[in-house]
Amino acid sequence: MAKGRQYTADEKLKVLEEARQPGTTVAEVLRRYGLEATTFYRWERQVKEAVREAFSAGAAARRGCEGPQDRAAEAGACTQEPGDLRRWWRRTWR
User: Fold this and answer.
1) What total of structural domains would you count in the chain?
2) Which of 50, 71, 78, 81 could cross-link 60 (Cys pair, CB 3.0–4.6 Å)?
């Protein structure tokens, strides 16, 4: 994977997962793939945002929250606890 090319979602996930393996540093993986740190951390941020959205949607569906028109959603019952996501993320990527 060289600079200036488009990466597939699978390639991005592979890089992110490699960088979080025990005994591996982010810098080492960035050198191997010829990536800038800003690119890596942007991808990581995008994954976190996507996971947060997916968890929020899943939690809302389990509570029966249809969307913003739903009374429970308006009352704030359909929000994701940020602490739960942070704990999951630390276990998964560290």
Assistant:
1) 1
2) 78
